[in-house]
Amino acid sequence: MQRSRTVLNRTALAVVGLVFLLGGVWLALTGASWATRLPAWWPDAGPGTVLVDRSGLAELRTTGWWTPFVMAVSIAATALFALWCFRLLRSGVRPSVPLPTPGGTLRTRALEDAVTRHAAGIGGVTRCRTRVLARQKQLQVQLHVWLRPDVAPAAVLPALAELADRTETSLTPYTVRTRVHFSARSHGRPHVR
After folding, report:
1. pTM of the model
2. CA nearest neighbour of 2 among 87, 81, 106
3. pLDDT by residue (tens digit) across 6-44?
4. What average pLDDT does range 61-73 have in this prediction?
5. What are the E-state strand segments in 86-186?
6. Cα–Cα dist 70/92, whole Å
7. Longest dimension (CA), the chain
8. CA-to-CA distance for 92 and 81, rounded, in angstroms?
């Protein structure tokens, strides 16, 4: 997941950068007049002028909606950018858990993958997502388990409890708390068109 997100982010940045670079090179080298190809409703800025001059900007500022609109858009853009940056930083490096053997460490991502594989192999489970949070001598394992529509949570809970016990015994010096969240796949109903 992390690698695909990194590749996707870098690809998106490279494509946007390449588009801007090619557009700038095209405008600089060809001397093409793009102003003649603007829509008819676009205001015509004469040579040496700007699109919104001082009087036009002052007129916009006197309207009642301008300041709240600009503030709302600015705050929303800043919040979305901050959330995006926070999610990128948070999903970065995962902690390693030191094991009691000398020099032994366990990556939490490897533990997540192993628990997910075992949980998905339980009969009645269609999908599982695991998250491991590490704090000093405590690990919290969060399982989100999707069940088939005809399976009750009580049917798979003993197998999940056994998996949680095996995980806890394999990480003996740590206190392991396991939380399970169940979701069910809906019945596929045929749609008539």
Report:
1. 0.52
2. 87
3. 777 788 888 988 999 998 887 777 766 666 666 777 766
4. 88
5. 96-98, 105-107, 125-135, 138-147, 175-184
6. 33
7. 78
8. 17
